[in-house]
């Protein structure tokens, strides 16, 4: 009886192991290595397989730092293989952290664009881009009627003719967005970007719970095949470490034909539905800063003191002359 039970237990665990091996095999086929980054990173500091990097980007075995926590830094990381699948999903593991507790910036962006390896003012990459930008903005540039809390996650689809409005945090061109909290936590944070049958879905795992939380879903988003993935970050007067821990690309196409893939290379990026545009209002003119007020008052005091000293000296000299007559 004991032998039978032992055989049954061994058979049961053997079946579990076989099932896990099958899952692992399917998972490896599902994830495309040529578009992915998985630790430990090879070619530390010099060459990164399937990816190029520029600017202040630093590659270590455990993370890729797009910018250090220093002012006026910019870095980027670009995959050099075009994506030839219509439907895909991307999981990005990252950490944004730095010394600043109240003031920090500026954030980073995940790109799916026609052009690659081009620097510019939009989180370290070019403006007037063609494709998709997923933006994780940590600093609020705008405090007017369309302000939201930061950090803020948003999406923008561009056909190459629109400029990202940095002064207003892109609120006039975004598809959708949500407030997020991912900065200065002790664990790795994640974002999921899924594009399937012209539906763009973005979710996050920012609380170390190993579960996705929906940020937004946008229908009728048309993106071409043949574009490139990239990541970029920038700092200005404020700064942060922007670290990428993983980038996993999953091909979720099932029956798409080669003809369909090639046809979609000619699509112009567009979105038929988007967040209702907010009224464009100019920012109120900023008042004088405390420093400016201080220097103005100091100038007035010095001028007044100078006039007073001149007047006292003048009248003393005049009175002294009268005594000689």
Automatic annotation (TrEMBL):
Q: Where in the cell is it found?
A: Endomembrane system; Golgi apparatus membrane
> Quick check: keyword Signal in the entry?
yes
Q: Which InterPro entries match?
A: ConA-like_dom_sf, Intracellular_Lectin-GPT, Lectin_leg, VIP36_lectin
Tell whether Ubl conjugation is among the UniProt keywords: no
- Spell out the molecular function terms from Gene Ontology: D-mannose binding; metal ion binding
The UniProt keywords, alphabetically, are:
Disulfide bond, Glycoprotein, Golgi apparatus, Lectin, Membrane, Metal-binding, Signal, Transmembrane, Transmembrane helix
**GO process annotations (BP):** endoplasmic reticulum to Golgi vesicle-mediated transport
What is the residue range of the signal peptide feature?
1-24
Q: Where are the transmembrane segments?
A: 293-315
Write down the superkingdom of origin.
Eukaryota
Gene Ontology CC terms: COPII-coated ER to Golgi transport vesicle; endoplasmic reticulum membrane; endoplasmic reticulum-Golgi intermediate compartment; Golgi membrane
What CDD domains does UniProt report for this protein, alphabetically?
A: lectin_VIP36_VIPL
Topology in the lipid bilayer: Single-pass type I membrane protein; Single-pass membrane protein
Q: Which residues form the L-type lectin-like domain?
A: 29-252
Name the SUPFAM superfamilies for this protein: Concanavalin A-like lectins/glucanases (SSF49899)
PANTHER family linked: RE50040P, VESICULAR MANNOSE-BINDING LECTIN
In Swiss-Prot or TrEMBL terms, this protein is called L-type lectin-like domain-containing protein
Q: Native species of this protein?
A: Drosophila mojavensis
What gene does the UniProt entry assign to this protein? Dmoj\GI23425
């Amino acid at each position: 009886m004991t032998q039978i039970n032992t055989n049954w237990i061994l058979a049961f665990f053997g079946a579990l192991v076989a099932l896990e091996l099958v899952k692992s095999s399917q998972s490896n086929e599902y994830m495309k290595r040529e578009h992915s980054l998985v630790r430990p990173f090879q070619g530390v500091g010099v060459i990164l397989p399937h990816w190029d990097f520029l600017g202040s980007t630093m590659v270590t075995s455990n993370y890729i730092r797009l910018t250090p926590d220093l002012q006026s830094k910019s870095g980027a990381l670009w995959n050099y293989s075009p994506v030839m699948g219509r439907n895909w999903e991307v999981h990005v593991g990252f950490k944004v952290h730095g010394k600043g507790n109240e003031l920090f910036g500026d954030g980073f962006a995940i790109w799916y664009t026609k052009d690659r390896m081009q620097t510019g003012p939009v989180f370290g990459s070019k403006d007037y881009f063609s494709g998709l930008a997923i933006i994780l903005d940590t600093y609020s540039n705008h405090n007017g009627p369309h302000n939201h809390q930061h950090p803020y996650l948003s999406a923008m689809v561009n056909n190459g003719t629109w400029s990202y409005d940095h002064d207003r945090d892109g609120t006039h061109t975004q598809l959708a967005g949500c407030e997020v909290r991912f900065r200065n936590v002790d664990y790795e944070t994640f974002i999921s970007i899924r594009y399937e049958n012209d539906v763009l879905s973005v979710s996050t795992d920012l609380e170390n719970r190993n579960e996705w939380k929906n940020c937004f879903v946008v229908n009728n988003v048309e993106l071409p095949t043949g574009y490139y993935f990239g990541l970029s970050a920038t700092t200005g007067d404020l700064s942060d470490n922007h670290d990428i821990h993983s980038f996993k690309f999953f091909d979720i196409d099932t029956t798409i034909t080669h003809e369909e893939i090639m046809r979609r290379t000619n699509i112009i990026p567009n979105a038929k539905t988007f967040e209702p545009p907010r009224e464009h209002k100019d920012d109120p003119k900023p008042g004088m800063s405390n420093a400016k007020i201080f220097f103005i008052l100091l100038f007035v005091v010095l001028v007044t003191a100078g006039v007073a000293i001149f007047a006292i000296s003048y009248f003393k000299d005049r009175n002294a002359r009268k005594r000689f007559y």
